[in-house]
Design goal:
binds calcium ion, metal ion binding, four-stranded antiparallel β-sheet, globular, 20 strands, N-acetylgalactosamine-6-sulfatase activity, N-acetylgalactosamine-6-sulfatase, alpha/beta, hydrolase
Length: about 525
């Protein structure tokens, strides 16, 4: 028997331990697809019904029909997810030209600024172990490495899996394990451009399952950011999935990702951490219509990746957390990937930083109690607010797809869709009289509401106020996507010396990046 004076502290310690072991500190998994469209999942109406695991995940959890990325392109969307802030604030935009989509190709000089706080950094301070698997895309130079921005582990690549390159004009993209590179795409990690065969999704899935097993054994909370990229061009799938989809190679990739989602959820169940793990599935931007038959489906929505129409930014989203999120729910909450920042921190009982604007909102009440919160969604392209959604109304202040010169070369972000005065090939300023759509009865943004109607005036009155407030309180961050330099490409990734795989780099020659659209 313990001396009497020890009873209270011992009980308190036991109490703390028990509540942690019982699951008061949840684990988080974000499964972020690359260029997957809203219409790619059976549960969202894809007629081939080739996503049984995702459809089941939705049946066991909550389907979010009106959930958005913060940008129609990879890098800014991902920077916004991790910072909870619009790209215009976190620096993932360009001022080289008006309303341009920029990202982080190998030539990019910039990346995620040290001043930005990524939510994994705050989870890490609270005792979480964080792993990113797959594509980082927030800059590839050493100072932007994910292990310097809140992650403890990384298996994946800093850029898209474009290639193969000759390692003279342009290096192949490195693959990292932890701090160091372990090889390069097309050299050590194969993607066959003719057949589309690659076992990368298998590797990324095994990495996830192993991490979950390790963390479950250690009984420490974890955050897994599973950012795999099989549905981004060049699209790939492993041999068992090749040729199995009715939709061609793109569908093969989706089927393999669906199978991987099933394996990851099974791993959570096997290791008995399913009741203590919130899993959110979504995509970084809309399906790439420019990829033609190797791109995703945006369902009933207009255009795709690169545009601020619904097809560019509305994402197939599912939230799953057994015994916390009730099964078979459909939520019409206007959600954003930026909401992950305050939502996950709130669920982990971590205070939000107060020294900066956070654009995401805490959705825990939506996920756990089905509450609906009024909020706007802003659609940015580079340095311009193109559109805003409030309730069922969406107002376009600017419209643009891309220039006619590009269109004539076959680059079409709205393939097969042409809505006069909406899918414009010049940058059209509608600020004095925004184009207004009701996205409930007109999902495809085809029939602008007459500016003479009472409905228009009533909706625009509310939207104008929201836009005014937003712009008044907006302080743009230092743009990170203005400067390029072939000297900064992946010639000498960290760890290349150990492998004897460093490449000779050309001398530095900075120039302003050219963003065509
Ligand atoms: Ca993407």
């Amino acid at each position: 028997m313990l001396p009497k004076k020890w009873h209270l502290p011992v009980l308190l310690i036991l109490g703390t331990f028990q509540s942690s072991a019982c699951g008061s500190t949840p684990n988080f998994i974000i499964m972020l697809m690359d260029d997957m469209g809203w219409g790619d999942l059976g549960v969202f109406g894809e007629p081939s019904k080739e996503t049984p695991n995702l459809d089941n995940m939705a049946a066991e959890g909550m389907l979010l029909t009106d959930f958005y990325s913060a940008n129609p392109l990879c890098s800014p969307s991902r920077a916004a997810l991790l910072t909870g802030r619009l790209p215009i604030r976190n620096g993932f935009y360009t001022t080289n030209a008006h309303a341009r989509n920029g990202y982080t190709p190998q030539e990019i000089v910039g990346g995620i600024a040290d001043e930005e706080i990524l939510f994994p950094e705050l989870l890490q301070k609270a005792g979480y172990r964080n792993k990113i698997i797959g594509k980082w895309h927030l800059g590839h130079r050493p100072q932007f490495h994910p292990l310097k921005h809140g992650f403890d582990e990384w298996f994946g690549a800093p850029n898209c899996h474009f290639g193969p390159y000759d390692n003279k004009q342009r290096p192949n993209i490195p693959v990292y394990n932890g701090m160091d590179m372990v090889g390069r795409y097309y050299e050590d990690f194969q993607i066959h451009r003719e057949t589309g065969e690659s076992n990368l999704t298998q590797i990324f899935t095994q990495q996830a399952v192993d991490f979950i097993e390790r963390q479950a054994q250690s009984q420490k909370p974890f955050f897994l950011y599973w950012a795999i990229d099989a549905t981004h061009g060049p699209v790939y799938a492993s041999k068992p999935f090749l040729g199995t989809s009715r939709r061609g190679l793109y569908g093969d990739a989706v089927k393999e990702l669906d199978s991987a989602v099933g394996q990851i959820l099974d791993a959570l169940k096997t290791h008995k951490v399913d009741d203590n793990t919130l899993v959110v599935f979504s995509s970084d931007n809309g399906g790439a219509m420019v990829s033609k038959d190797k791109g995703g489906s945006n369902g009933p929505f207009l255009c795709g990746k690169q545009t601020t129409f619904e097809g560019g930014m509305r994402e197939p989203t599912i939230a799953w957390w057994p015994k916390h999120i009730k099964p078979r729910q459909v939520s019409y909450q206007l959600g954003s990937l930026m909401d992950m920042f305050p939502t996950l921190l709130s669920l982990a009982d971590i205070t939000l930083p107060r020294d900066r604007a956070i654009d995401g909102i805490d959705l825990s009440d939506t996920l756990l109690n089905g509450k609906n919160i009024d909020r706007p969604i802003f659609y940015y392209r580079g340095n311009e607010m193109m559109a805003v959604r409030l309730g069922m109304y969406k107002a376009h202040y600017w419209t643009w797809t891309n220039g006619l010169q590009e269109l004539r070369q076959g680059i079409d972000f709205c393939r097969g869709e042409n809505v006069i005065n909406v899918t414009t090939h010049d940058q059209r300023n509608h600020t004095s009289q925004p184009l207004l759509f009701h996205v409930g009865r007109d999902l495809g943004e085809r029939y602008p509401i007459s500016p003479d109607s009472i409905e228009y005036h009533s909706a625009m009155k509310k939207i104008s106020k929201v836009v005014r407030d937003h712009k008044t309180n907006l302080t743009p961050g230092q743009p990170q996507l203005n400067w390029c330099d072939t000297g900064v490409m992946n010639w000498k990734p960290i760890g290349c010396e150990k492998l004897g795989r460093c490449l000779p780099a050309p001398s530095s020659n900075p120039y302003k990046c050219v963003w065509m659209h």
